[in-house]
Design a protein that fits this description.
The complex is a heterodimer of chains A (about 250) and B (about 250). Chain A is an all-alpha fold and about 250 residues long. Helices cover about 80% and strands about 0% of the residues of chain A. Chain A has one domain. In chain A, helix 2 runs antiparallel to helix 4 and helix 7 packs across helix 9. Chain B contains ten helices and ten strands. In chain B, helix 3 packs across helix 4. In chain B, a hairpin with a 2-residue loop joins strand 9 and strand 10. With about 250 residues, chain B is α/β, with parallel strands linked by helices. Chain B folds into two domains: about 150 residues, Rossmann fold; about 70 residues, no CATH class. Classes of the chains: A mainly alpha (about 250), B alpha/beta (about 250).
Chain lengths: ~250, ~250
């Protein structure tokens, strides 16, 4: 990475980051995210009614579903808006490489999530006050949760590169994130395994291995395995490669 | 400073630009004329590196656009059609963003912003949101962006579109003034503009260059023609005529 790479990525990052604050998007998303995470944890998982204050099964377990809806809402403007306004033509005729722009924008959306996720800290304070939780699973849970969010954002970035409509991007991204979450659901996988002919169970298990869920839950249990981190990182890299492909195809 | 050779662009089965070659030297203002859909914008998008040509080459100040896109883009300024802007920014922050992408930082950046705000008469709206600007101001803001790094090559796609007569006049004289030490291409379909601001003009029709010369020499192309208007009509095909023939 050259100096120029960093400067350009930073310039795009700054603009994109500020854009979230110049519109109500950031505030709306953060408020809904905090209401959802805390609501699910306290009202559905009944965190206070049990003796066990494990965040993995009561707090982080809800995150994938929340991200499925909210991450596309944050990411959908990344490239769609650029196409709609026509500013893509401006950006791509600047001495900026597509990669600098793609990273800059993706990082801006990622930092937005970092802030949102950091604002869930009262829950950590709560469990620390009520009990004596192990800090390992909490840290790995947060890392897993953040990686999950970034993977959803990267997928949304890829889809937004193909369309000028934020609504279309949002719907397709939610559908995509939902499918990739569901294929890893143990109940669903078991049902499908029972239904398919003998000898093809391996295929089903192989497909379900691509789900975010498996890797996510492994990590929230406190089993911090490089394999799962690498999985999310490679999803992000592939999605950003697809973003580049989308931008190229739009420029014909 | 701009050298375009055998540029071809094909979209699917449609040939949008068909073997276009021209060059523009320093101190020249080239008017790009042609009916709607003739391939003017497509050509400009290839010259600025936005579209990748199907074949052919573009050379900006001796740098090949296809081989060294970032270096070549650094040397040119571009005003796209319809003057796109980030609607959530203020005029000054938008120009600041463009300056940073052009590699201007710190005091250079501030100086560049002040210079173009002054040059394009944008001082009184510098902290206004782009969203709330009138069309003339929006256009000038985008124009300011294209000259923020004082480029050697300037490419303007319909720079006077949607402006009132005073603003048109202002933009034209600005182009003429800057044309003295830059190479400028601008597209238009207003023919008086060509006579007012260009040192040379190219007429493009259905992707092909059909005439290339000074405004005076173009007039002589068609015997008996008194104005560029008549020349334009007789050497380009209007889309209504095509329909009649079909």
């Amino acid at each position: 990475m050259s100096n120029r790479d960093i400067q350009n990525t930073l310039a795009v990052f700054k603009r994109e980051f500020m854009a979230y604050f110049n519109s109500p998007v950031f505030y709306v998303i953060v408020v809904i995210f905090l209401l959802a995470t805390n609501g699910f944890t306290f009202f559905f998982s009944r965190l206070l009614d049990s003796d066990d204050v494990s965040l993995a099964t009561r707090f982080f377990v809800w995150h994938p579903w929340i991200y499925t809806v909210l991450a596309p809402a944050v990411g959908m403007r990344l490239w769609s808006e650029e196409h709609r306004l026509g500013t893509i033509e401006l950006l791509m005729t600047m001495p900026v490489s597509p990669w600098q722009a793609i990273w800059g924008k993706f990082l801006a959306a990622s930092v937005i999530w970092l802030i949102a996720l950091a604002l869930t800290f009262p829950i950590v304070v709560t469990v620390a006050y009520l009990g004596d939780p192990d800090s390992g699973p909490i840290i790995s849970g947060y890392v897993a949760s953040y990686l999950y969010a970034m993977a959803c954002l990267a997928v949304t970035s890829a889809i937004s590169a193909f369309t000028r409509s934020q609504v279309v991007c949002f719907i397709i991204s939610v559908a995509f994130c939902l499918v990739i979450a569901l294929i890893g659901d143990p109940g669903l996988t078991q049902t499908v395994v029972n239904a398919v002919p003998n000898g093809t169970e391996g295929v089903v298990r192989f497909i379900s291995y691509f789900s975010f869920m498996d890797h996510f839950f492994e990590m929230t249990k406190g089993i911090f395995v490089l394999r799962d981190v690498l999985y999310f990182v490679s999803v992000i890299v592939v999605a950003l490669l697809v973003t580049d492909l989308g931008l190229r195809s739009k420029r014909a | 400073m701009i050298q375009v050779k055998n540029l071809i662009k094909v979209f699917g089965t449609k040939v949008a630009v068909d073997d276009v070659s021209f060059s523009v030297e320093k101190g020249e203002v080239l008017g790009f004329l042609g009916p709607n859909g003739a391939g003017k914008s497509t050509t400009m998008r290839m010259v600025t590196g936005y579209f990748r040509p199907t074949s052919g080459s573009v050379n900006i100040c001796g740098i090949d656009m296809l081989e060294e896109p970032e270096l070549a883009k650094q040397r040119l300024g571009y005003l796209p059609e319809n003057a796109p802007l980030y609607s959530d920014m203020t005029v000054a922050s938008f120009l600041g963003f463009c300056a940073e992408l052009r590699g201007l930082h710190g005091a250079d950046r501030t100086r560049a912003i002040d210079r173009v705000l002054d040059l394009c008469f944008l001082d009184n709206v510098r902290n206004q949101s782009v969203d709330t600007l009138s069309k003339g101001y929006r256009h000038r803001t985008c124009f300011a962006q294209s000259i923020i790094h004082d480029p050697d090559v300037l490419i303007l796609d319909e720079p006077t579109d949607g402006l009132d007569p005073n603003q048109k006049h202002e933009v034209r004289s600005m182009i003429k003034r800057m044309g003295k030490d830059k190479a400028i291409i601008f597209s238009t379909h207003i023919l008086e503009e060509v006579e007012a601001a260009c040192s040379r003009a190219i007429i493009i029709d259905r992707g092909k260059v059909v005439a290339d010369g000074t405004p005076e020499s173009l007039k002589k192309l068609v015997p008996g023609a008194n104005s560029l208007d008549e020349v334009f009509r007789s050497i380009t095909n209007s889309d209504t005529a095509v329909k009649k023939a079909a």
